[in-house]
Design goal:
By secondary structure, the protein is α+β, with helices and mostly antiparallel strands. Helices cover 57% and strands 19% of the residues. Among the domains are: 105 residues, Beta-Lactamase, CATH 3.30.450.20; 149 residues, Histidine kinase-like ATPase, C-terminal domain (Heat Shock Protein 90, 2-Layer Sandwich). The strands form three sheets. The protein has a five-stranded antiparallel sheet with strand order 2-1-5-4-3. The relative contact order is 0.06.
């Protein structure tokens, strides 16, 4: 009995010690969890504070107005630009209905857009007049839904930009675009005028000789006609034979009669030369809007090269090799323009070359006619070969070209179902390929 009684209180003490140890352990664990939770809460608070600062910085820096509203359409957050626009303290605006800051029509559009957001969640854009310190000003408004994690409608975010600013930006863009188009038109016009100037120089030079010949022949004919009129007047007046014989000798009618025939022939030759020049000009100025016809590429190339030779005054004569006849289909006047551009570029590249050579070779084999213009100039530098056909790109000095010749020529070649390429090898080389004319 005494042994059992002695051991009883000791056993209870042990049990109490164990229980107390469990309690202390539980307290320690709970305290550790509380500390961990506190640290996590502090981190989240810090992140929330940083996010809050970021949002405030965004709301304070955006130039467009920005307003966050709740489901009831009342203001929860605003940007500094909105507060400046309505000239109110940011704190005084929180909780006010956003619709109250718009005119009647704008408030109605806002209410309709909010209702649509509740149903469809799709963003809306509309114009509305915001009541500002300067009066009602038009804004371009965008309204997007705010959704919870469960896609529940929580409100909306409104952003807006003054339409006056947008319209000024659009007007400036339109004005810049118009100026660019006018500049492009002017450059194209300058290119055409430059080509026309080269052509007119050749025309003036070429027409001067036959017209001068015709003028000299006509002047001689007037002189001879006057002498013959003098002689025949005396004949009609019944002058004696001796006087007429002497008059014929003095007027040298026998010699003038022979010269008369030569003057007539000379005037005719000069007129025919003028006619040929005009015919070449008419062929050169053929429009591209008409029906395409079959023509001889060799003949067209020779006419084009001849006109560049006349206008350039470089003294360079284009040498032709290859086929003597090659039939293609297209607009001969436009193909002549390509050849003229290529020949003119070649002659420009030969400026300063000691022994200039410019050759046009025409190959006429299936499936395409190939016209190659080659010169022994310095050629096209490797670093600009990729841009050689770009509009307004030129390697010539200022005032010597607009950079449109090759781009226009490449476009014409493409319209004819062919292509214009930069060839390889020493010097300058361009290859024009056109489909051969095939008889049905």
């Amino acid at each position: 009995m005494s042994e059992a009684t002695a051991s009883g209180p000791a056993g209870e003490a042990d049990i109490l010690d164990d229980a107390w140890g469990d309690v202390l352990n539980a307290v320690d664990r709970t305290y550790a969890e509380l500390v961990e939770y506190q640290e996590r809460l502090e981190r989240q608070n810090a992140e929330l504070h940083a996010a809050r600062l970021f949002i405030e910085s965004v709301l304070g820096s955006v130039s467009d107005i920005m307003v966050v509203v709740g489901r009831d359409g009342k203001i929860e957050e605003i940007s500094a630009s909105f507060a400046r626009a309505v000239e109110a303290e940011p704190g005084a605006l929180i909780g006010q209905p956003l619709s109250g800051f718009f005119t009647g029509d704008g408030a109605a559009r806002l209410a309709e857009a909010m209702n649509d957001l509740r149903l469809s969640r799709e963003s809306a854009s509309f114009e509305a007049d915001l009541v500002t310190a300067e009066g009602a000003l038009p804004f371009d408004i965008s309204l997007a839904a705010r959704l919870s994690d469960r896609s529940r409608f929580e409100g909306a975010v409104l952003t807006g930009r003054p339409l006056g600013e947008l319209r000024r930006a659009y007007a400036e863009l339109e004005r810049s675009h118009r100026q660019l188009k006018e500049a492009q038109t002017q450059l194209v016009r300058n290119e055409k005028l430059a080509s026309l100037g080269r052509l007119l120089a050749g025309v003036a030079h070429e027409l001067n000789n036959p017209i001068s010949f015709v003028y000299a022949s006509v002047h001689a004919l007037e002189k001879y006609v006057g002498q013959f009129e003098t002689y025949f007047e005396r004949v009609q007046q019944g002058a004696p034979r001796a006087e007429l014989v002497q008059l014929r000798a003095d007027l040298k009618l026998e010699r003038n009669l022979r010269n008369l025939a030569e003057a007539v022939h000379g005037a005719r030759d000069g007129a025919e030369r003028v006619r040929d020049i005009v015919a070449d000009l008419r062929r050169l100025s053929a429009e591209g809007s008409g029906e395409r016809v079959e023509f001889d590429l060799v003949d067209v190339a020779k006419v084009a090269a001849r006109w560049v030779e006349r206008g350039s005054k470089s003294g360079i004569t284009v040498r032709f090799t290859g086929a003597e006849r090659c039939m293609v289909r297209g607009v001969s006047g436009h193909v002549q323009q390509i050849v003229m551009n290529l020949v003119q570029n070649g002659m420009d590249a030969l400026d300063g070359v000691e022994t200039p050579e410019l050759t046009i070779d025409i190959a006429c084999t299936e499936p395409a006619a190939v016209l190659t213009v080659r010169d022994n100039g310095p050629g096209v530098p490797e670093d600009v070969r990729a841009a050689i056909f770009d509009p307004f790109f030129t390697t010539k000095p200022v005032g010597r070209g607009t950079g449109l010749g090759l781009s226009i020529s490449a476009k014409i070649a493409d319209e004819h179902g062919g292509q214009l390429n930069l060839g390889d090898g020493p010097g300058g080389c361009f290859r024009l390929e056109l489909p051969l004319e095939t008889s049905e």
